[in-house]
Amino acid sequence: MTKDFNYFDTLLPQIIGSKTSAIAPSITPSAAFGYEDAFEAESIFEGKIQKPFYARMGNPTNAKLESVMAKIDGGFGAIATSSGMGAISMALTALLKSGDKVLCIGGFFGGTYALMNETLPRFSIESIFCEVDDFETMEKELKDGVGVVLCESVGNPNLKLPDLRKISSLCEKYNTIFIIDNTATPLVVAPLEIGADIAIYSTTKNISGHSASLGGIAVFSEVKKECKLFDQKYRHLRKIVDKAGKGAFIAVCKKRSLRDFGMSANAFGSFLTLLGLETLSLRMRKVLQSVEQIAASLDKELPKGFVRHPSLTSHEHHARYKESYPLGCGSLITLDFGDKQNAYRFLNSSELITQTANIGDNRTLALHMKSTIYRDFDEKSLKILGITDSLIRLSVGLENPSDIIDDILNAYSNSIK
Ligand SMILES: *Cc1c(COP(=O)(O)O)cnc(C)c1O
């Protein structure tokens, strides 16, 4: 990892604000944009002139957000979307066609799991779910020609850590597009540096931090000559890829998905996201420090095995955490007291925690998993995702970590009957 928090501390406030005239990013609340004349209209639609032409396909406020996120991840460009799910579905529906398969590695956020397990199969795009360290299955499926490999930088909520470099080199070997959902670890995991082709974010989470704006973004690597996209299995994309050159991922996503499905971001949402993004480095630094402190204190005070986090030696990926996640792995910790009633009493006894289906907020959040996000899932899926009857997901916020620890220990002692 070449870029650290010191780099981002300076970069973010400097590139988001403007030094002259209006300092805050401007909001362009227009759905349509006029053209000078018929010639300009033609050139814009041809792609010879880069100007906004209709907000479903782009907007100046979204463009600002896209350029900042591309800079953060060292990407060629980005496309902002209406939500994190919008970004995932944009990338997958653009790259895949009926009959293709997706290799899904590790744990998944509920919405993504349902997309892969229920919705895409309705369009004959199947998913193969594979344990995070099952390299044998990965290699077999890659050899068999899966269209895309998808994984989360850290499993939400199972907190398993994939070996991203190893998966990336397997994808390279088999010319297969690798997408990392980096929602939980902006700034601390650099998907494109690791070799992924696309980084996906739900900007609703840490990037905004304020829970005021639903949004997502996909950041794309530069497409080089003779790269993966020229593999036979992507021949259905070839016409667009040949014409678009370095920006081929953007062209493929716009022409095959954004234009026709319309999961576009809106200017006001992107403005709110940019306001959050300005302070992301500062907030991530604080949250990651607090997470380790809270996990360690709770692990000491509570019975063995009740607290799960990769910074604890009891976690199966502790060594990988130390080696590959030196800055941390996001805001999540999970708690499992082994009994659903205890879990409910705990949540209802806390004075500090906000119970909601979100993560990466400035406030500390928690939720009982099985009765909410994962309520419609069958036993097999729950097992794959690591959801038990009593699992609580905690997303650490910006509060004083000692206050969070005190509140949790208090709520715990009130909950055990
Ligand atoms: C929340 C989340 C999503 C979906 O994002 P939305 O903005 O809610 O659509 C996708 N992936 C992960 C890891 C998430 O946490």
What can you see in these coordinates?
This protein is α/β, with parallel strands linked by helices and 417 residues long. The protein has two domains: 5-277, Aspartate Aminotransferase, domain 2, CATH 3.40.640.10; 280-413, Alpha-Beta Complex (Aspartate Aminotransferase, domain 1), CATH 3.90.1150. Helices cover 42% and strands 13% of the residues. The strands form two sheets. Strands 1-7-6-5-4-2-3 form a seven-stranded mixed sheet, sandwiched between helices. A five-stranded mixed sheet has the order 8-9-12-11-10, covered by helices on one side. Helix 7 (164-173) links the parallel strand 4 and strand 5 (177-181). Helix 1 (5-16) packs antiparallel against helix 3, helix 9 packs across helix 10 and helix 12 runs parallel beside helix 16 (401-415). The longest helix is centred in the last third of the chain and has 22 residues, at 280-301. The radius of gyration is 22 Å and the shape is globular. The protein binds pyridoxal-5'-phosphate. Residues 83-85, 109, 111-112, 152, 156, 181, 183-184, 202, 204-205, 214, 216, 359 line the site of pyridoxal-5'-phosphate.
Defining key terms:
Aspartate Aminotransferase, domain 1; alpha/beta; five-stranded mixed sheet; binds pyridoxal-5'-phosphate; 16 helices; 2 domains; 417 residues; seven-stranded mixed sheet
User: Oligomeric form of this entry?
Assistant: single chain
Strand order of the largest sheet: 1-7-6-5-4-2-3
User: What molecules are bound to this protein?
Assistant: pyridoxal-5'-phosphate
Number of helices: 16
How many β-strand runs?
12
